Amino acid sequence: MPNKTRTGKGDSNLAAVNAYLKKNEARFVRELSEYLEIPSVSAQREHRPDIRRCAAWIAKHCRSIGLATKIYETPGNPIVVARTPPVKGKGRLHYLVYGHYDVQPTDPLGLWVSAPFKPAIRGGRIYARGSSDNKGQHLAHLNAVEAYLKTGTELPCDLTFVLEGEEEVGSARLTEFLLKNRKKFRCDGVVVSDGSMPSLAKPALTYGLRGNVAVEVIVRGPSRDLHSGSFGGAVDNPATVLCRMIAALHDRDGRIAVPGFYRGVVPLSKAERRRLAQDPWTPKALAKFVGVPQLKGEKGYTPEEQRTSRPTLEVNGLTSGYQGEGGKTIVPAWARAKLTCRLVPDQDPSRIAGLVKAHLKRICPPTVRVEFSKGHHGGPAYLIPVTEPSAKAALRALEKAYCHPASMVREGGSIPIVSLFKSALGAETLLLGLGLPSDNTHSPNEAMSLAGYRLGARLGAFLWPELAR
Amino acid sequence: MPNKTRTGKGDSNLAAVNAYLKKNEARFVRELSEYLEIPSVSAQREHRPDIRRCAAWIAKHCRSIGLATKIYETPGNPIVVARTPPVKGKGRLHYLVYGHYDVQPTDPLGLWVSAPFKPAIRGGRIYARGSSDNKGQHLAHLNAVEAYLKTGTELPCDLTFVLEGEEEVGSARLTEFLLKNRKKFRCDGVVVSDGSMPSLAKPALTYGLRGNVAVEVIVRGPSRDLHSGSFGGAVDNPATVLCRMIAALHDRDGRIAVPGFYRGVVPLSKAERRRLAQDPWTPKALAKFVGVPQLKGEKGYTPEEQRTSRPTLEVNGLTSGYQGEGGKTIVPAWARAKLTCRLVPDQDPSRIAGLVKAHLKRICPPTVRVEFSKGHHGGPAYLIPVTEPSAKAALRALEKAYCHPASMVREGGSIPIVSLFKSALGAETLLLGLGLPSDNTHSPNEAMSLAGYRLGARLGAFLWPELAR
Hints:
2 copies of one chain form a homodimer.
Chain A: H1 14-23, H2 25-36, H3 48-64, E1 68-72, E2 79-83, E3 93-100, E4 120-122, E5 125-127, H4 131-150, E6 157-164, H5 172-180, E7 189-192, E8 204-209, E9 211-220, E10 226-227, H6 238-247, H7 270-276, H8 283-290, H9 303-308, E11 312-321, E12 330-331, E13 334-343, H10 349-363, E14 369-372, E15 378-379, E16 382-383, H11 389-402, E17 407-410, H12 417-425, E18 429-431, E19 447-449, H13 450-468
Parallel strand pairs in A: 3-6, 3-7, 7-18, 8-17
Antiparallel strand pairs in A: 1-2, 2-6, 4-5, 5-19, 8-16, 9-13, 9-14, 9-15, 10-12, 11-13
Helix pairs in contact in A: 1-4, 1-13, 2-4, 4-13, 5-12, 11-13
């Protein structure tokens, strides 16, 4: 951990910014904690009032640090837009900083050590749903901008924060919003901090993300749960049928058995595989970290390649019949699976969803009916050219902020909106994840390390001068 | 529907009994309704107080009609024993009448038209959990006995009602209780009304039941739900693994693929298959009744054979990962299936449970761990010799009560305790189901037809003289 500010030539005006960040550390944590108390779960209707409260909270915060802030209403959740004050001067660069104030659901609730919306600090980490994904990460950037504005240090770029409330459910409103307001959001690049780096001593720019797409399948058998004694044996069991269908989604080598699934997948180059081979995880360490007896993935690829650069098809949830205590001797009326695919260049999300559905329909026996729930969301994979000058600038800022050499990594997660920044705004995105692999995002006991939060604000301080150089 | 009492020679003293039954019909329905209001779900701990309240209710009722009644405490749910008053005379037959006051869980609650514990009468049926399985059926027998006692008509046999509160969870306490009190319950036979007949115009004695046994399997993968973007592809998915394991439980012909599963299964004789071919259901009618597009069962057997006389392995419930609204992109930490087998002579329940577990262990990959939850319950199948004199007496009583010819049928359900009556008490059991196939037992909207309840009491009136003949 760095304990002194290492500034290079031309960074002398950052001394005040970094001093301000240091001085206000405790307050920044209090503000994060307050922000985390709002249960802004976008997937669950019951949390709609919390979503609105959360948008209002972050908008108020943006205003308080000196940003011109507006809450845009949408047919879904509001979008908060906050701009730095105008600065005279021609040819100034304009960057968008993207974040999302919505969070994942909290279940299984019983596995949380402390309540997901009662932020608790233990061992230098703040535990709460949304701490790392994504409230802590965009708040760190806001802390840096606050430091510039409150110390009277001139920001070398104009910044627009775009904070949405539907990232965890597909960003449909933001997509519409940006497509309708292309001109307003014309920019030279986008900064997204919504991921992680290998460790605080190994800061990294993420140059690749997987895409994703969701398919929810329901197998319907009898019109009601049947007594398995009276009818079992003569009626097909929808749970069994669904299992057989899911079993037919992969082959023995861990490859996805959906016809056409791999068509258009760009093969990994030798250079890429060399870069991925620098993975800090050994297979054994990764297995231990996630708690499995043995890793398993697609044959012919390393675990790092499997989890960052190869497409997947996962079951996220299974539901059928009786799930309570004890037993209930029924043939269930239906069975459901929530499926998602992670995608790589150049797989198209809608096409993949169509292929998966067609395959499931094809293998579904005539003894049941198969249905798909409407409205899957998703987006394609994203790769930033490694030669992009802004990428090099970001690497310099990372090294200065974290006082360690920075690398380029490829991540397995998805931020579908990134492709939209490219297509609608023509802008490349710099993925600067401020989190850590141990943050338990999407899992019980999500946490953000306080050091990571602090260093994230430091990155925010160093980033804009490097990008403007 | 008969609208006059048809009594034969020697049945003249039944006129008063039948008149009493007719006169008190409305009150009998009110009493059933009161009994059904108690949510005596044995599978769920939260209902323990209701179980005790239910035992107290039925004990009080037994006392009120003149039976010497005692509630026996057990380490689980109480057993209610109620005896008819002693009658002088040598060589009187003694019959046990078995019933259970516990009921199945109610979920999926949303599918009930009226609340499961607010009995509602619609279209000549009383809707409530437990109406047909089993409160209405044993209460009908008690109504008949009440009619004998209150009209001063001499019962031709001594009767002992044994009403337990753990039938839906395996009857473990009753088993211990009967084994410990063999002498007290020595009897000439047992009457169990806990099933159905094809229709009120086709009354039937059930001469065969399937056995059953339960296995609950949990597949454990990562120590927590993982972000499917960060880790998906390199880690096996427990939900997918469980599906593959379940898919390997049956072959393409609908036969159970567990090695050794069919060893010892007594083949169906030609006579038996002829009898089963008299099934009132055509395959098309059965498919329509249960609401499936097409039936499916073990190759080489008719639907009637499949659902009554062949063993099965059913998934009763599936649970894994995220099941709420929207999506959650995780690799779930674990996946669970509740499985039960229906058994036929001479399959042994413990042996079958062992075979299923061994098979699941064998096919479980080394990338996950497989576990089984303790304490499966079950019992072997049961067949009463068709030549048994008491069976012929029961058929005569059925014809008199329902005014239609009675037949012998084989049922697919299980009443494990029946085998115990044979082994512990040396007694055969007469299975006289008073319900109908449309009763939705174990399903939402369970109901008992009021005509079936009324005629059940009439059967109770005719049965004892026929058995004593």
